[in-house]
Each structure stands twice: as C-alpha cells, then as structure tokens.
C-alpha cells in the first residue's frame, strides 16, 4: 500500500464521527490534566483503561493517544501563567513564558505555544506516517555510548553558552546532578543519599522538585513583599500575536519542530532533551540573546514546538517496534494488549486500519486542540485577575493534590515544601532553577548510559570514539566548548540560563 | 457476559445466606475496595491487576480500584498494605518479589508470612530466554555450550536488583555454573530496545514483553523457563529439554489482605477471585499476555501460603549464593 491509500484508510477511520468524538474527549481530558501539575497523562490513562474495554480498539487508542498529546498542550498553561511546570519540558517554557505573563503578555505566550505545538504536531505526524519504520530502525543504532555522548553535548552546550554567572549555572547543574543521584543505584542496589528513608529509594520525584523550586519558591518571593507584588498585575495588553510576534516565532517554531522530531524518535530519552535543546539553539541563534529569560517569545515558541513534535514522534518506536520510549508509552502498550493487540513490528501489516487510523487521528486531534485552546487563552488570562490572596492557596493546593496523585506518597508533599524553601533561597542567592532541573533530569541518564557503555565494552573507554555517531557527537561537544573559550568569539557568547527577576 | 456475572452474583449471594458469618462480614463489601499494586502503572503486574479488578468489581457489586504505589522494588507498597486497616478494603496484588524481598532487603518493614492473609494465587507468567537476532548460537544446546565457553564475554540484560529478569539470570547462571556480564536497565522495556538494536547479547524476560518480538523474528528465543512448553510459543523448547532439569521459573502473582482480616471476608474475596479468573474476558486477555489464570484450586489462601513459603526458602538460598543485596 502506498502512503496515500494508507492515509486514505487512516482518515476514513479517524473521521468517523464516533472516533472524532472520542478523540475530542481524549484531547479535552488531556488538556485538563495537563494543566494540573502532577495529574499527568500516566495517571489519567491508567484510570481510564477499564473504560476503554467496551470501545473498539481504534476508538480506545485514538482517545488514549489524544490524552497524551493533549496533556503536552495543557502542560504549558500553568507553566506560563503561574510558573508551575508539571514536567521537564514545561520547565523550559516557564523560563520565558512566565516572564511574558508578568509583563501582561500571557495571551501571546499561550497563543504562541498553541500555534507552535499545532504546527509541530502536524509536521511530526507526517514524519510518523511517511518514515516511521526506517526512522525506528535508525534510532536502534543508538546504544549507550551514543546516548552518553548526546547528553554530554546537551550539557556542554548549555554550560558553554552561559554568561556572567557561569559559575552559578555550573553549580546549579552540579547540584541537580547530585539531587538526581538520590535513590537506589540500579547497578548495585546501593542506596545513595537516602538517609535510611525508604521513600527515597526510588529517587526524588521530579514533579515535587519542579513544583517546589519553580512554583512554591515564586509564591514565597511574591509574598515576601506584599505591597509590590506584581503577579499578573500588569494590564493584559493583548490576547493575540502581533505581526511582529508572528515574524519572531516563525523560525523558532520550524527549528523546534526539526529538533523535537529527531530527538523524539530516540527511545532512550531523546524527548527529554528536546525542549532544552531547542531553547539553547534559539538563544544561541537569536540576535537578541539578552532578551531570553526576560520574556522572549522565541523561548516559548521553540521549546513548545520541539516538545510537541517529540510527543508525536515518540509514537514511532512504539508503533513500529513495540518498544516504549517512556512510561506513558508503556501504558499505551498495556492498552494495546487489553484490546487484544500485541504492539510490535507486525501491527502495521496486520492492523493497517488501526495503525493508520491512529496516525490520522493525530492530525484531527491537533486541529481539535488548537480550536479548543485558542478561545481558552482569554479564559486562562482572566484567571490572573483573581486576587493573589485567593490564587496562591489554590495553586499550592492543586500542586499538592497533583503531586500526591502520582504515587499516593505523602513524602512527596514534604519534598515540595522542602524544595520550595530551597528554591526561595536560590532566588535570593541569584541562582537559577532551570540549570538545576537540567542536571536533575539528565544526570541520572548520563550516569546510566556511561556505566552501561563501560560495562558492555568491558571497561574500554575507547568505545565512545570508536563508534562513529558517538564520536561525531563528542566532536560537536568539543566544538561547542572551543567556541565558548576562544576569545574573539567570546564577545558574541550568549546567555542560556538567565532568569533575572 | 454481564448476565452471567449477575447470575453468579445472585448465586454467591444466595450461598452466603446459608453460611454463618458475622454481621459485619456479611454486609461486606459496602464500599469501594482498593487493590494496591506496588509498581508503576503500565507494567505487566499493573495490567494483570486491572483485568482482575474489573472482573472482581462485577462479582462484588462494588468498585475495585487499583492504586499504584511504586518504589523500593515493591516493598513500599507492600509495607503500606501491611500497615493498613485489616477491614478487607485495602488489598495487595504482588508478584514473586514478595518472596525475594526478605533476602534482598536487610531491614524490611514487614514480614511476608506474618503480616498478610493470603487470598489466592492469580497467575503464573512464564519467562523466555531470548537473544539478539544475529547472536551466534542457533539452538538451546548451542547456547548452553556458547555461554559456558565465553562466560563473561556474553552480555546479559536485566531490569536491576531483584527484578524477575535478574532472578531468571541468576538461576540460569547458577544452573550452568558460569558467570556472564550483567547489564542492568531501568526496566526490561529499555533492555528490549537494546536487544533489538543488537547492543547486548541476551535477556530473560516474561512472555508479556517478548512474545510479539519473537513471533516477528526480531529476536531469537532459545527456551521457556516453565516445565512444559507454552501454548503461545509451541516451537520454543523448555530448559529441561536442554538438559537443565528442575529449572522452573514463572513470575507468580498473589492477592493478599493485611493480617487480621476477618476469615469470612477472606473467604468472600477468594470466591470473588476465583469467579474473576474464570471470566472469559480475563482468560482471553491473559492469553494475549502469554499467560493464563491459575486453576480454581490454586486461587486459594492455602495454595498461596504454600507457594510463598517455598519460594522464600528457594530465593533466600539463590540470592545469598549470588551475593546480591538491595541495601
């Protein structure tokens, strides 16, 4: 079957009114749970699995997929409005998105995020349709040495481009790496930094950490100066993008889509890097890098596009190889199995209506999302006019409920309080929480892949330069350092993580 | 299907009228029941639990809710249920890890034998010994010879300390009296990715995770770990056929209540579990997972207690011999 007749089949499934309805239900639910930090797509899909028993496989999986990418849309909303990211990619959006909200530009920020996501989602879905099997094969050539080198590149690009507070940024990355080490070492089972607390064996909860150092710390900072508080107080200028905004986001959206699509295919954690990578790239390429961290719309549009593109292409390893790229995809495998379909290389041939139906439904879903979200922008922005004395307890409450819902673990609530205080102290010391989160997310991956590569190579470090992809990535990393160090280029060096307040 | 369940409910209700039970237990259940799964949502244990919970909900006439309490190799969730109120409204569905925890964890906050009332076995998931597509050995005999000869040059993926895939590897290496290079992953999903990509040599994992890849010819299957061949993979021999007598490993799952739960409630739950396991939908879905519900005479407190005790003894020795510890 060629691509067009396949897509024809796909759209005949996806445009069935019944399926469109469930697709809508999925993206609506996804948007709602994405807005609440913590109550993410994993919990929602798990809760809804029993309900999908009675639906036919296409409908059930279209709805569940909708929840997943719908949540990617919704996640940016709280990050932009109240600096409360629910996942690592939203943490990147919060950097400039929240600053835009403080300047009364929450509307354009939300609109840029929605439009960027829509564009990226549509393009990535096309990639999924056209090239899924070969792309998945290519992604398999990424072993631990390649992932290690990719993460080194990611970290070095971020460090090398930091400016002024390079020492503080470095310190924050290291602190993040250390926090990421908390928990049981998967190689030996040795508990590290757990202080005998069984709750820490599984490591610190990302949502608790992110909600603490971003959301709660921001609330503390706002409350310390009751009179001069300024959350959302600047008059909302406009809800829609200006012509100038459109001009500014076009290139970042395109680049974010490319970066996200490529990284999303890698099943070993590529999607985590996508938003960070896009942000670094935009700041590096921008003519006004000094605006980043102070409300640059490029810093919202790029990472949001990258994130949504990665969300779509992360279906590639699942649908063509039957391997999950992250916990939500693992849950999708469970959903396939409950429907009597074992995901794997044969799905595309044995269940063409299902395979192409899901892909086509992603276009439908992305369209529904943009129709759903753009009118909501006005509503969300109105939320900022709620008096802060009412708003902040509600934020704290929702953050706690959301975080508790992940593992039903009261310990995570204490962690929010603790990291809220830590985050507040960091703000006071002029340190930025974004590099900390970068270290926290990438640190464990870096260690895991380094050690695994060394175990498999039986202790031979040459494996990192003998494998061509790995060697190329390391060479790029070296180049990034050289560019930052060479004095004549130093003047152009740009800031990556600056969140002045 | 619905009709059948309603009928069963009526029969059970009528049956319970003849047995003398306390008033409290007679009304049971009057509120939703929570089954704690000590692993994250989406894993094989979670899937098994959700299927059983849905069928038990119909039988009990109350919603049976699944709650994921992951962490510390399943000991966090198990510890929470051990400390829960023994009123029959908080249950635990745990797998083989219940029997390995005492050997792996020096300070366990609960005693698997004393702190729980067994309700019944649920399922036993067979495991498969698999390798990358281009791995040299062709048959099980070849594999055994190859592993004996190459020892630590063979890389072997597992999902970390105490995971089923690690236990299987330990037993296999113990049986061959050889050491391979163990490569831990965060779960067998990522391990499967590397196996498909040819980054590692071998793995032993539940049929849940391997069957589709084996059938698609993406990986090689050498053996199943059960005494008999299994229906979904009729061409794959057992390890016993390859000369490893007595090699018997299946990831068994059991349902438990906290110690001190009323006997009548346990009886009611056992009955409900048996009804759920006889459900056609559950049977079919289990078959898709490459497993099957245990027969009714195994879904009993006695069978589970016996299984648990025997396995605690077995794994205590294997884990001690291998020098593995989680803390």
Describe the structure.
Chain A has one domain (3-490). Chain A is globular and about 60 Å long. A two-stranded antiparallel ribbon of chain A has the order 1-2. In chain A, a hairpin with a 6-residue loop joins strand 1 and strand 2 (191-192). Chain A has helices spanning 3-14, 17-35, 41-52, 57-82, 88-102, 106-140, 144-161, 166-181, 206-224, 243-265, 270-285, 298-313, 315-321, 327-338, 347-350, 352-383, 388-407, 410-428, 433-456, 463-466, 468-485, 487-490; strands spanning 183-184, 191-192. Chain A contains 22 helices and two strands. Chain B has 327 residues and is an alpha/beta fold. Helices cover 44% and strands 18% of the residues of chain B. Chain B has helices spanning 2-18, 23-27, 44-60, 75-82, 97-104, 140-150, 164-176, 188-196, 207-215, 263-278, 280-288, 301-322; strands at residues 33-37, 64-68, 90-94, 116-132, 155-158, 181-184, 202-206, 219-224, 250-258. Chain B is globular. In chain B, strands 1, 2, 3, 4, 5, 6, 7, 8 and 9 form a nine-stranded mixed sheet that branches. Chain B has two domains: 2-125 and 252-322, Bordetella uptake gene, domain 1 (D-Maltodextrin-Binding Protein, domain 2, 3-Layer(aba) Sandwich), CATH 3.40.190.150; 126-242, Periplasmic binding protein-like II (D-Maltodextrin-Binding Protein, domain 2), CATH 3.40.190.10. Chains A and B meet through helix 3, helix 14 and helix 19 of A and helix 3, strand 2, helix 4, strand 6 and helix 8 of B. Chain A: InterPro entries: DUF112_TM (IPR002823). Chain A: This is Tripartite tricarboxylate transporter permease.
